[in-house]
Design goal:
Blueprint lengths: L7 E4 L6 E4 L3 H16 L11 H10 L19 H21 L5 H5 L4 H16 L9
Antiparallel strand pairs: 1-2
Helix pairs in contact: 1-2, 1-5, 3-5
């Protein structure tokens, strides 16, 4: 069974700007949560839920963005090329760390990696861009 999605645009009545309708808002919510997690995790602290494993799963495994550009999901998960670029900026250091340490390393190994600050800064920027809010640790 093939999943059919549509990408549509409309004008915001208040601002007159073009707005992209997101076909998969629940997946977008997972991405936003993943970005909040990545930007707020700190080493040597208890890992909350959702944690690093869930964030990586939502951002990479559920989207296949390690295999294709986030730009291909504009209209399904993302609203703009700016959001896609911000996601790519998060994925670049994150993927490099995962490739270097492997999928079974302890969370603190990731969180103390020299490039982890690149992940947190990029994730915070992407979260801000997608929500207009400063990220905080998600509560579930």
């Amino acid at each position: 069974m093939a999943l059919i999605t549509t990408r549509s645009h409309h004008r915001d009545n208040r601002t007159g700007s073009r707005v992209t309708t997101i076909a998969w808002p629940d997946r977008r919510a997972d991405i936003i949560t993943a970005l909040a997690v990545l930007s707020t995790l700190r080493p040597h602290t208890p890992t909350p839920w959702p944690g690093l494993t869930e964030a990586v799963h939502w951002l990479i495994d559920d989207t296949f963005w390690d295999q294709h550009s986030p730009a291909s999901d504009i209209g399904t998960i993302l609203a703009s090329i700016t959001e896609a670029d911000a996601i790519t900026a998060t994925l670049t250091p994150l993927s490099a760390i995962v490739d270097e340490l492997g999928p079974t390393a302890a969370d603190d190994d990731y969180l103390t990696h020299p490039r982890w600050h690149d992940v947190t800064h990029a994730a915070a920027h992407a979260h801000q861009l997608m929500t207009g809010q400063t990220p905080t640790q998600p509560e579930h």
